Amino acid sequence: MNLLVTKNVKVCYDKQLIIHGIDFELEPGEIKGIMGPNGAGKSTFLRTLSGELEPSAGEIYFNGRNLTGEAARVVNRTGISYLPQRPGCFTSLTIRENLQGAAQRDYIFSRRHAETVSNLVELLGFDDNLDLPAGDLSYGEMRVLDLAMALICKPKVLLADEPTAGVSSDTADEIVDLLKLLCDDGYNGEFALQGLIVVEHEKYAAFQMANKIDFFRAGNLVVEDSPSSMAKYPEVAQYLSEHEFE
Amino acid sequence: MWKLKGSALKLVLTTSTLSLVGLVPFYAGRFQIVLITEMIIWGLLALSFNLLYGYTGMLSFGQSIFFGTGAYFLTYGLQLGAGLPLTLVLVTVSATVLGFLTGSIVIRVKGARFFLVTLVGAILFHLIALDSRWLTGGDDGLVVSAGFLGIVSNYYLVFAIALGVCFVVLILIRSPIGLVLRMIKDNQRRTELLGYWTDGYKILSFSLAAGIAGLAGGLYGFSTGFVSADFFHWSHSADAVIWTILGGSGTVAGPFIGAALLTFLRGTFSSLLGKVYPVLIGALLVVLMIMSPRGFVGALDRAFSCLRNKWWNRS
After folding, report:
1. pLDDT (tens digit, 9 = 90+) per residue, B271-303?
2. Which domain holds residue A107?
3. Domain residue ranges in chain B
4. Chain B residue numbers touching A93 (CB-CB < 8 A)
5. Alpha-carbon Rg of chain B, whole angstroms?
6. Does CATH number 3.30.70 belong to domain B2-314?
7. pTM of the complete model
8. I need a labelling partner for A217 at 20 to 30 A (CA). Which of A63, A135, B81, B169 fits?
9. Interchain contact A109–B (C-beta under 8 A)
10. What ipTM describes this predicted complex?
11. In this complex, do B190 and A89 lie within 8 Å of one another by their Cβ atoms?
12. CA B288 to CA B248: how far, in whole Å?
């Protein structure tokens, strides 16, 4: 059974149809990259999957459960975590409070999440500056903290919206390696993901890790294929030549 | 090490301030005791607003609704012979319930409209209280029937309750629930995306703040021996906003400092300066907001940090 399925999903935003009916499938263990030019509807589609936007038509299923129109918190609690496009950490709180806040969702009056927090701190290397305000971190560090917050409740599927955008190439490499690790053994299985959807404006991260690439244009999914075969489609080839990154 | 010294300094400062306030009846005159009692009650009202604005990010102008409700519930409770302790509990519970009911509706309104809805709500409650003379006595008000405890005993009653409320608020803010409230203030969208029912937490904050405002209203009515429809006037909400911002939002001490400072200035200068007084207060606020957006406590914090850094460099 597919992990995540959308059937003819349409999304209106400011009375404009942004997503024109997308059929999408994510299989267990799959990493999907979503690419496309600006305004193609990639982020809108991801926000719809996360529950932040409600589809105007169509259906969304996760593990067979109909999640169409459910609030973001409900979607998150079923096991779909969303990494927003811009840093979404709480800048007025410390790194420790950010992690604790994300972790305590299910155990608000117990310390059961303490071990998870410390494992994630170790994995991401935040050990030395846990009491720093998150607002003092660099953009790249904020992205890593965001990722930690998205992972801390051990989601089954991660929706990552441009996780490497705006960060240095070294940090981008670290984030890509980390995402690969999460899809592989998930730090001894603790944070293992069953599926990952990565939206990328440029081909770097998506091509580095995805099993399949979906190419969006003007709110439609126009091509789906493996990363190595994408260049054979003329409109994708043209887009890739315009957005060569490495 | 420096963090430890900073904490010790704060502890010493808090303890000495509390001792100073606790010993007021031993060194101050009757007028000053009454004035400081009033300051503490206004501080409680400001603290209730601070729980909403300083910790949850909701700019509400509705605190006067609960302040007035608390004052009237105290009067009715005492008239029915419930006794002061039980009446104060009833006052807090009834204001909390009213806060829950109104909060469940108004928290759905976001941004500037939230501020407008709460302001209109406060005006509406004031008009209803003015019109319902059979219930509230309108402008003429009602006399609180129970015997006054005496200036000193009343001072200690108010002081003890205020201390207790501060303690509860401190525990709440440092608890996991307080952390979620601060997350909502910082970024509500992200908090929702992390799986939290943010509306539920906002209703909780609104209800607790209403309970504290109701308690402040009850104490004010009991201290003055009189309640009127004027207790519902939206200017009490505005005062709470000004006191909190002036003293320092997002801190427990800030609202009390702001309320004490402005009540002192009003008591001292309003008769001397007449119509110039509000202009002076406005100017003071503008200057303070430019110099220290985090209010008086923020300025104090900055001064401590400067001193600490200088000390550090010297040693």
Report:
1. 777 778 888 878 888 888 888 888 888 888 888
2. 4-242
3. 2-314
4. 179, 182-183, 186
5. 20
6. no
7. 0.90
8. A63
9. yes
10. 0.89
11. yes
12. 11
Whole-angstrom distance, CA of residue B188 vs CA of residue B199: 10
Nearest residue in A to B186, CA atom: A90
Q: Are residues B229 and B126 in contact, defined by beta-carbon separation less than 8 angstroms?
A: yes
Query: Are the beta carbons of A76 and B185 separated by less than 8 Å?
Result: no
Nearest CB among A73, A88, A97 relative to B195 is that of A73
- A188-231 pLDDT, tens digit each: 777 788 999 999 876 667 777 888 999 999 999 999 999 888 88
* Domain CATH for A125: 3.40.50.300
Tens-digit pLDDT profile for residues A78-130: 999 999 988 889 999 999 999 999 988 877 666 667 777 777 777 777 777 78
B224-268 per-position pLDDT tens digit: 999 999 999 999 999 999 999 999 999 999 999 999 998 888 877
Handedness of CA B58, B64, B66, B70 (dihedral sign): positive
**Per the structure, how many domains does chain A have?**
1
Q: Which residues in chain B have Cβ-Cβ distances shorter than 8 Å to A157?
A: none
Smallest CA-to-CA distance from B98 within B217, B204, B211 is with: B211
CA–CA separation, A124 and A120 (whole Å):
6
Structure token pair of residue A33: 């990259």
